[in-house]
Amino acid sequence: MRCTTLLALLTGVMLYLVMGALVFRTLEAPDESLAYTNLIATKHSFLVNKSCVTELDFHKLVKGVVSAVEAGLDVNSLPANFTSRWDLASAFFFCGTIITTIGFGNLSPRTWYGQLFCVCYALVGIPMFGILLAGVGDHMGTVLRRAVAKIETLFLKRKVRPTTVRVISAVLSIL
Fold first, then answer.
1. Which residue has the higher pLDDT, 78 or 36?
2. Neighbours of 129 (CB within 10 A)
3. Considering the entire predicted model, what is its pTM?
4. DSSP class of residue 168?
5. Whole-number Å distance between alpha carbons of 71 and 81
6. Where are the alpha helices (DSSP H) in 50-160?
7. CB 3.0 to 4.6 Å from 27: which of 16, 36, 109, 114, for a disulfide?
8. How far are the Cα atoms of 74, 132, 141, 144, 145 from residue 138, in angstroms, in the given order?
9. Which of 11, 126, 125, 29 is nearest to 82 (CA)?
């Protein structure tokens, strides 16, 4: 694969990652923000208005917490200012873990349309990344073969034994 083709493919994959990050951010961040707002309101209402907790009030609080957890919030620590887990950098990283099939697992879409997009995104992205990886491997193999051939001719011109040249070539190929 030619270097220009490889660079075009790399550019395409990077643009695909950015596009996916923007879509995931658009799909997931509003629900996450809404869950945060609802949880803060529930917490505030619970703490301000309830001097004596009833069973019904307790169940309302638990329902609010469960709803926030289902939306992907970490309820162990609620900062005063909301920061989405679906910022552009995190979404870009998530897209990278999808197309490389790493699947790190610390972030995942919680909405059904986010999950549906994730499946479609992977169906296109995984083969695209595989083609890029094959192209990079092909290009590196070509560069390595040329370098080893130049080193072999250099050693053969200096009257080094062919067996020694083959050993040096094998060691360089392994490295």
1. 36
2. 20
3. 0.65
4. H
5. 17
6. 55-70, 88-99, 112-157
7. 114
8. 44, 10, 5, 10, 11
9. 29
CB pairs under 8 A, 24+ apart, for 25-30? Answer: 25/84, 25/86, 25/87, 25/88, 25/91, 27/109, 27/111, 27/113, 27/114, 27/117, 28/72, 28/86, 28/91, 28/109, 28/110, 28/111, 28/114, 29/84, 29/86
154 CB-near residues (< 8 Å, 6+ apart)? none
Q: Distance between CA atoms of 94 and 123, rounded to whole angstroms? A: 15
Amino acid 65 reads V
Residues near 131 by beta carbon (within 8 Å), at least 6 away in sequence: 9
| Two tokens, residue 48 | 């301000």
- Please give the structure tokens belonging to residue 139: 């290009």
